[in-house]
Amino acid sequence: MNYLFKNIRQLVQVRENHPAFIAGEDMKVLPVIEKAWLAVEDGKIAAYGEMKDWPGISDWRNLEVIDADGKCILPCYADSHTHIVYAGSREQEFVDRINGLSYEEIAARGGGILNSAARLEKASEHELFDAAMERLNLIMHSGTGAVEIKSGYGLSLDAELKMLRVIRQLKEKSPLTIKATFLGAHAFPALYKENKQAYIDLIIREMIPAVAAEGLADFIDVFCERNYFDPQQSTAILEAGKKLGLTPKVHANQMSRSGGVQVGVETGAISVDHLEYVEDEEIAYLRKSKTMPTLLPGAQWFLSLPHPPARKMIDNGLPIAIASDFNPGSSPSGNMNLMLSMACVMYNMNPEEVVNASTLNTAYAMQAEHEIGSITLGKKANLILTREIPGYSYIPYSFGMDLIEKVMIEGRWIRQ
Ligand code: NIG
Ligand code: FE
Fold first, then answer.
1. CA–CA separation, 85 vs 89, rounded Å?
2. Ligand 1 site-directed mutation target among 84, 85, 104, 113, most atoms within 8 Å of CB
């Protein structure tokens, strides 16, 4: 089926040509066509324009005309950082934190990532697939059209491969654009507590070659943080992945100035994510790189961590991406609308900036900016059709409300 939308109140993020990502002052610029029309053909964006140039019904076959009077159309969100494959939930840790324990204290007691690893060990590929597919359906309904998914709750060769095979199946069976990331370096398993080098050797000598041999991942990630992987260990792991074709990403500076940003820039990472602890030195590093600084407001808020200095980063010319970090420990939500609201309120980012940060910039952070992230001829028709709203700023303004009427992925309605 082909579609022709007419009377669109605002067609948002329209870019005939665009740079790989949007940075600095340009982040305030969100190209919009007011009173627009849009054509979708064979799952792709085929044409658009102003209603004054409305082409009328063309002679396409299978054409449906949709009146979007009062409604906005945006490209779907790209969520460039998630841990959506997991077994069980961790609301007890949430309660423990309410009652005074810190995330790091819970982790030190064997909770946190190791808790999820213990549960994942027992789950079958089939069970993990079903649970993850349900989460994908939920985020699709809230406007996400592309998602990066990490391993990292396996922490053994077999369990990491199990997670990545689940992600491969999700790639095959879900309509979403999916990228896979190998995150064996998410935590040290209890077995290796006294011999951390042995776990690093296992990652470098066995896990990475096995992952690469099966073509199971696009990216490689490390949790570069005190009590997790130090900069030297992180670099060794990322370089080993790079040699076998995996592009680096880094969990950086979430709990401390861990050196993760420098590791990311030096290894040519496509993104460094979290960034609660960033100062001038890290900003200077990022300025000389093509690494996307990615903020995860859900995890920062849920763990009551300090705000990353988003305003300062943008004002220093950097790009910013915003993703959900959907995972059972630090961000049990993958609702990108909510992430945008949080970034506006907590980081003083403008609606224009948060839309750029969650569409084109996250598309770049998943190396998918040529196929998604904007209304551009030939890109996938991954579209959010809102209810009747005054304009796109109303989306982050109405935090927690569901303003989406329909979602289209590659020219097919998945929510109607
Ligand atoms: O991105 N920071 C490390 N990893 C995840 C949390 C994972 C968990 O708690 O299960 C994060 O926040
Ligand atoms: Fe994460």
1. 11
2. 113
Q: Is 67 helix (H, G, I), strand (E, B) or coil?
A: strand
At 36, the amino acid letter reads A
* H-helix or E-strand spanning residue 412: strand 412-415
pLDDT grade for 403, boundaries at 50, 70 and 90 = very high
Segment 209-235, tens digit of pLDDT: 999 999 999 999 999 999 999 999 999
Element (H, E) at 134: helix 125-141
181 membership: H or E segment, kind and range? strand 177-185
From CA 227, how far away is CA 117, in angstroms rounded? Answer: 17
List CB contacts of 355: < 8 A, sequence separation 6 or more. 12, 13, 30, 74, 340, 392
Q: Which amino acid appears at position 169 of this protein?
A: Q
For the full predicted model, state whether its pTM sits above 0.90: yes
For 235-279, write each residue's pLDDT tens digit: 999 999 999 999 999 999 999 999 999 999 999 999 999 999 999
In angstroms, the CA 268 to CA 271 distance is 9
**pLDDT recorded at residue 56:** 76
Q: Of 91, 115, 330, which is best to mutate to test ligand 1, by the most ligand atoms within 8 angstroms of its C-beta?
A: 330
